[in-house]
Amino acid sequence: MPEADAQDGREANEDQIPAPIGLSLSRHRDLEGTFWPWSHRIRQAVMLVLIAFVVAALLNAFGQRPSTATATSPSATLRVEAPTALRGGLIYQARVDVTATRAIARPVITLDAGWLDGMTLNSVQPGPASQTSARGGATFQYAPLRAGKTLTVWFELSTNPTTVDWRRSRTITVGDGGRDLVSQTSTFTVYP
User: Fold this and answer.
1) 66-191 in CATH: which number?
2) What pTM, to 2 d.p., does this model score?
């Protein structure tokens, strides 16, 4: 039997197992034909894109490194430390420091809807004396804060996996009862 006939997968000598019907050894095993010289380059390009994505993630391009923003008023200073880039499913922490310049009888921290839409609030530490919904978000009331003292609150949140948002605004406000003292607005991005 000629060698060319043995390579097409239909006939084989006794030492060779025939290829299944519909497959050609020259095309499917030896990768001969017009598409296959490019397949190596296509595989390399796809691999480079995946590697670039992983390197960007390792360099924290897609989230969780916290940034710090500060706002001041005559009554209080508000310092918020929270990530500005998130991914779906990510669990993260936001730290809020309220330093009273003057005594605050009923310190109230209000997170607007930008903090909570598409997010899950897992816990708040220390726990507030009371918690209600207001302004499309949530308010947390704490014990009186004397002048010069700092109240630190940690919010543990998680991003819902289906949330994707580019440059979303979020505002946190500190008040004394019903009067706003200081607020801070920032933006963040939720990557898919």
Assistant:
1) 2.60.40.1510
2) 0.70
- E-only strand ranges, 58-191: 66-72, 76-83, 85-87, 91-100, 107-111, 119-125, 130-134, 137-141, 150-159, 165-176, 179-191
Running DSSP on this structure, what letter comes out for residue 102? S
- Residue 75 above 70 pLDDT? yes
Please state the domain extents for the chain: 3-58, 66-191
- Return the amino acid letter for 49: V
Stretch 57-82: mean pLDDT: 86
Q: Where are the alpha helices (DSSP H) in 28-68?
A: 36-58
Please tell me the distance from the alpha carbon of residue 1 to that of residue 181, in angstroms, as a whole number: 94
44, two tokens: 């390399």
Taking 90 as the threshold, does the pLDDT of residue 142 lie above it?
A: yes
For residue 117, how many other CB atoms are within 10 A of its CB? 14
Residue 114's SS3 state is helix
Length of the chain (residues): 192
Q: What is the pLDDT of residues 122-131, one digit of tens each?
A: 999 999 999 9
